[in-house]
Every structure is written in C-alpha cells, then in structure tokens.
Amino acid sequence: MLDHPLTPITFQRLLLTGAAGGLGRVLRPRLKRYCASLRLTDIAPLDAAQVGEECVQMDLADAPAAQKLLQGVDAVVHLGGVSTEQTWEPILAGNIVGVYNLYEAARKNGVKRVIFASSNHVMGFWRQDQVVDADSAPRPDGLYGLSKAFGEDVARLYWDRFGIETLVVRIGSSFPEPTTRRMLATWLSYDDLERLVVSGLTAPVVGWSVIYGISDNATAFYDNTKARHIGYRPRDSADAFRPQVEAAQPTIDLSDPTQIYQGGAFVRAGHFE
Ligand SMILES: NC(=O)c1ccc[n+]([C@@H]2O[C@H](COP(=O)([O-])OP(=O)(O)OC[C@H]3O[C@@H](n4cnc5c(N)ncnc54)[C@H](O)[C@@H]3O)[C@@H](O)[C@H]2O)c1
Q1: Which of 144, 190, 212, 261 is catalytic?
Q2: Which pTM does this prediction carry?
C-alpha cells in the first residue's frame, strides 16, 4: 500500500472486475482511496462488502448482468477473466465473450475509461533477446495470449468508434517477489501496479495506449518510451532480488524454448501438449 496516493480522490464510482483474484485482492483496499464507491465483481465469491464497497457476483459472459454491472460507473479496472493457459471454453467465456460484454456495457452506460489487464503473453513468442514496444506486432504464445490480443483489439475498436479510452496494460509478473531469471525482467511490484493503474486512471489523455506492466528492472524485454504520456514512474526493481534468484537458477538452457522466449513456460503450456 502506498503511503501517499499519487492523486487524491478522483472518482465517484470505480468498478474492479476480477476482484476475488490475486491482483484483485491487492487492488481492492488500494483503489478505495481514489473513489467514493468501489464496485467489486467476480464469478467467484467475494469477501463481504465493507463501507464504501458494493459486491456483485456474476459471470462476465452474462450480457444482461454486465449491462447492469456497468450502470453508474465512472471508470473500470478490468482484471476479470481467465489468467492462465486453459482449454478454449473458459477462455471463450471469460476473455472473449466477457470482454465484448464489458465494452458493450461500457458503451451503453457511457463509461469513458477502462484499464484493461492484458498480458505479456500477447507477445510471448518474441525472444528474450528482443525488446518490444507498444507498436510491436502481437505474437501470442497460446489461447490465453490470443484472447488477450482479442481484448486489446476490442478496446481499440471501442476507442476508434465510440471514444471509450483504454490503457492496455500488458502485465509482466505481478507477485510478491521475482523467483526466476525471467521474472527479473518481467516483475511488477504491487506498489508499482497501484502506481500504474492510478496513472492510467488519472492521465489527462489516454486514447488507446499500450504500456508494459513492469517495475524499474535493469533487464527488460519491454520499452515503455511510447507510453510516457501516461506518467507511470515505477519505484521498485527486481534487481534487489537478483543474487538470490541467480543462486537458485544459475544457468540458462538456450535449447529450451521456455527459457528463450518472452512467454516463458506459457510457450509450452496448455492443451496443445
Ligand atoms: N498476476 C500477473 O502477474 C498477471 C500477468 C499478466 C496478466 N495478468 C492479468 O491480470 C488480471 C488479474 O490477474 P490475477 O493474477 O489476479 O488472476 P486471477 O486468476 O487470480 O484473477 C482473475 C479473476 O477473474 C475471475 N474470472 C474468471 N472468469 C470470469 C468470468 N467469466 N466472469 C467473471 N470473473 C471471472 C476469476 O474468478 C478470478 O478471481 C487477469 O486478467 C490476468 O490475465 C496478471
């Protein structure tokens, strides 16, 4: 939790999807400081609503429920959906139908801005010795990455056609600390996640922009130069963990695709095995 919020309270009502998930639980107490009312939703059960919170358990694949969910919302932090490589059916429901329903509901309810939790796995088949930026072509590493690429395109359509702004955040690895050599490049601390989301919510002009969700790591596969207008300034770094990570994983096997490509283990994961 940041000691000093970057920006004082700004929103009447924010919506946080995926609120029962790993990052949803991280952001739930943090986002409350930026809004009068925080609406929380997930397909899974949520902890009981506290003061200033509303909880809605629903499936994003349910269009009428999504329509109702977006009523009276100023901006959305969209984390909900499948977050790992799985079979097609849950990905279709959560990440394809779900993201379409969310944007349709945003359009019909006049919501103007979305922070969309996309993924590094949109770019997973770029190599770790290549640096990609906001304009690099997507190279998804599986059905999950493919579904996130679809979500990014839905967001772009709704910007071009309806003026709904989206900050696409291709999150690297947001966990308490980096545990692998790859994560030394992809790690995003929870405090930097908050900084990034709040930067996206409060930047004066977002349009449709892509940013990579990483901390200030010395090694990275990502160049965020083209997202300078968002004003995200990471303050944490994976580098403090480098000695222990390198001790645990002293060598890299350059014949192993999971160690060569940016997507890591995801390039071999899933039902294609
Ligand atoms: N944690 C990371 O490092 C990381 C990296 C890249 C991208 N992301 C993305 O960030 C978001 C949050 O990640 P997380 O680690 O908290 O994942 P998570 O799986 O813990 O949380 C996702 C939540 O979405 C909910 N959900 C799934 N299908 C749904 C549906 N059909 N309708 C409504 N809710 C549904 C799940 O119940 C879950 O609580 C995800 O979209 C994920 O793809 C996270």
Answers
A1: 144
A2: 0.97
